[in-house]
């Protein structure tokens, strides 16, 4: 996924984010992004689990 960006591009993105949001907001943004990904993963796993339980009930 990030192979086309490369290390210099990633560093540039982080520097731009630091300039735009400032050092005090970056930890909050990281925490919000992490919790959003965690919720998405849990919801996806719940949906997959629902499909598996429905298949078992039909059998």
List strands and helices in order, with pairings.
Layout: H1 6-21, H2 26-58
Would you write up a description of this structure?
The chain has helices at residues 6-21, 26-58. The chain is an all-alpha fold and 59 residues long. The chain is elongated, with a radius of gyration of 19 Å.
| Largest β-sheet summary | none
* Share of residues in helices: over 70%
Write the element-wise H/E pattern from the N-terminal end onward: HH
Mean pLDDT across every amino acid position: 82
Class by helix and strand content? mainly alpha
Rg, please? Answer: 19 Å
The residue ranges in which pLDDT falls below 50 over 5 or more consecutive positions are: none
Count of helical stretches = 2
Question: Kindly, what is the distance between the CA atoms of the first and last residues, rounded to a whole number of angstroms?
Answer: 39 Å
Overall number of strands: 0
Shape type: elongated
Question: What share of the residues does DSSP label as strand, in percent?
Answer: under 5%
Assembly of the depicted chains: single chain
Main location: membrane
Function: Part of the twin-arginine translocation (Tat) system that transports large folded proteins containing a characteristic twin-arginine motif in their signal peptide across membranes. TatA could form the protein-conducting channel of the Tat system.
Pfam family, one: TatA_B_E
InterPro entries: TatA/B/E, TatA/E
């Amino acid at each position: 996924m990030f192979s086309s960006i490369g290390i210099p591009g990633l560093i540039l993105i982080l520097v731009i984010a630091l300039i735009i949001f400032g050092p005090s907001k970056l930890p909050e943004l990281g925490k919000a992004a992490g919790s959003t990904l965690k919720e998405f993963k849990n919801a996806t796993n719940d949906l997959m689990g629902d499909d598996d339980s429905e298949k078992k009930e039909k059998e």
